[in-house]
Design a protein that fits this description.
The protein starts with a helix and ends in a 13-residue tail after the last helix. The chain is 45% helix and 11% strand. It has a five-stranded mixed β-sheet, with helices on both faces. The radius of gyration is 18 Å and the shape is globular. It is of the alpha/beta class.
Length: 255
């Protein structure tokens, strides 16, 4: 039965990937996927990749306290936003493959730090829940076992109400990898990664690679260098540190 279920999941995923041309879409720029400037979306939904945990897995930082999903959907459609989420996951999976080749270790998962400091309940509207549910479904159905650990930090007291809604969307194995911390989380994050892999905001020694805090002209120059294909913001930290390029295929459109 287990083998039968695995084959069913695999066949369903293959059909989904073909229907949405997922294997082809990663050569598109973020702007092509979103239909608008990526920086404008990141201002409403900031996240970036930076550093690696103690197991060599990529770390992804998400400033959920600044998420404004309803405002974001004034810039792009929910379908394009979810397409961007898929595009992001594909590039992170490609980064894991690059790390495997570079280190000789099998790296298939990633670690996530979700920061809720100062998050207001008015941000948690219908569009927020809709987008969160769609992303959770995508991850569960098409990127299972990609989560190494998720650390939710600076959780306000009101977050318990949000978690009560979100928790049932997650399978037991996924939920068991999520740790929620309200107070000082240094001991928890140091169990995951060394300080030199963490931005100062998260008790680390490294400068932040959050693209919103970088010079837009410098980012644009990096993206359009004659030596590179357009670089996803999520993997720029790895490329800057290791001078590697993602090997990704070409595509015309996201459908």
């Amino acid at each position: 039965l287990r083998r039968q279920r695995q084959m069913c999941i695999r066949d369903s995923d293959i059909t989904w990937r073909k229907l949405n041309k997922v294997d082809e879409m990663t050569s598109l720029s973020a702007e092509q996927v979103l239909g608008c400037r990526e920086r404008s979306v990141l201002e409403k939904f900031p996240l970036w990749q930076q550093g690696f945990d103690k197991q060599g897995r990529p770390m992804v930082f998400k400033d959920a306290f600044a998420w404004r999903v309803s405002q974001l959907l004034e810039l792009t459609s929910i379908e394009q936003f979810i397409g961007w989420h898929v595009w992001t996951m594909e590039n992170l999976c490609a980064l894991c493959s690059q790390r495997t080749a570079a280190t000789g270790m099998t790296i298939e998962k990633m670690s996530v730090v979700l920061d809720l400091e100062g998050m207001k309940m008015r941000q948690i509207d219908r569009n927020f829940y809709m987008a969160a549910k769609m992303m959770a479904d995508i991850d569960a159905n098409h990127y299972p076992e990609r989560m190494g650990v998720t650390l939710i930090v600076n959780a306000p007291r009101a977050f318990s109400a949000v978690w009560a809604v979100v928790r049932p969307w997650l399978d037991e194995q996924t939920a068991s990898k999520i740790n929620i911390v309200s107070g000082d989380y240094r001991s928890q994050i140091y169990r995951i990664a060394l300080p030199d892999q963490l931005p100062a905001r998260h008790h680390g020694d490294a400068p932040t690679l959050n693209p919103l805090l970088q010079d837009p002209d410098e980012v644009s120059e990096n993206k359009h260098s004659s030596n590179n294909r357009p670089l996803p913001h999520l993997v720029r930290g790895w490329l800057d540190q290791q001078s590697l390029k993602l090997a990704i295929c070409s595509c015309k459109s996201w459908r």
